[in-house]
Write a structure and sequence with these properties.
The N and C termini lie far apart (79 Å). By secondary structure, this protein is α/β, with parallel strands linked by helices. 28% of the residues are buried. It is built from six helices and six strands; from the N terminus they run αβαβαβαβαββα. 40% of the residues lie in helices and 17% in strands. Strands 1-4-3-2-5-6 form a six-stranded mixed sheet, with helices on one face.
Length: 179
């Protein structure tokens, strides 16, 4: 009987004194780490007309494809799926191309965090005033809209006047011109 008592006490004590540390559960506000997905920030005090300069500085020396989008925009999401093979090829070949995604607060935080888990690249979520001010300062009337910046920070392509996804051939051709 004494042996059974010792075994029961030992069994009850084991979970409390395990060798491995338990991980603290992630809070609901944290986005899970996903390889290839980076969340970047722009200070909320940054004026809309300065945002592109901030982004260019963070990606200096790289060709930058900027995608203006929103989580609720079906054509935006469809274009992201369509461009994936191009993006994956540049990443596989270790080409100096950064894929940058810019949206605003009309994309709800939880929806945005969930959406970007599968979108490799650099993600900026601006305040409503920054996003609308940036779109207005650039003359963007709708999304998705794309812009390409060369390694020196010069804008070399955009489809601001037409909007929409211009197609794989156009995106790849414009990126390859400046590589």
């Amino acid at each position: 009987m004494k042996n059974i008592l010792y075994v029961l006490l030992f069994a009850l004590a084991m979970p409390l004194t395990g060798c491995a540390q338990r991980k603290a559960p992630a809070t609901k506000t944290q986005a899970p780490a996903t390889p290839g997905v980076t969340v970047e920030t722009v200070a909320s005090t940054t004026a809309p007309e300065q945002i592109l300069d901030v982004i260019k500085a963070k990606h200096k020396g790289k060709v930058v494809l900027i995608d203006f989008w929103a989580t609720w925009c079906g054509p935006c999401r469809a274009a992201m799926v369509q461009i994936d093979p191009i993006k994956e090829q540049y990443l596989k070949d270790k080409r100096p191309v950064d894929f940058v995604y810019i949206t605003g607060e009309t994309s709800p935080m939880a929806t945005w965090r969930d959406a970007i888990k599968s979108i490799k690249g650099y993600h900026y979520r601006l305040t409503d005033s920054q996003f609308s001010g940036l779109l207005k300062s650039l003359g963007i009337m709708g999304i998705p809209t794309y812009m390409i910046i060369d390694k020196n920070g010069k804008q070399v392509y955009d489809n601001i006047e037409t909007g929409g996804y211009p197609g794989d051939d156009v995106i790849k051709g414009e990126i390859d011109k400046v590589l």
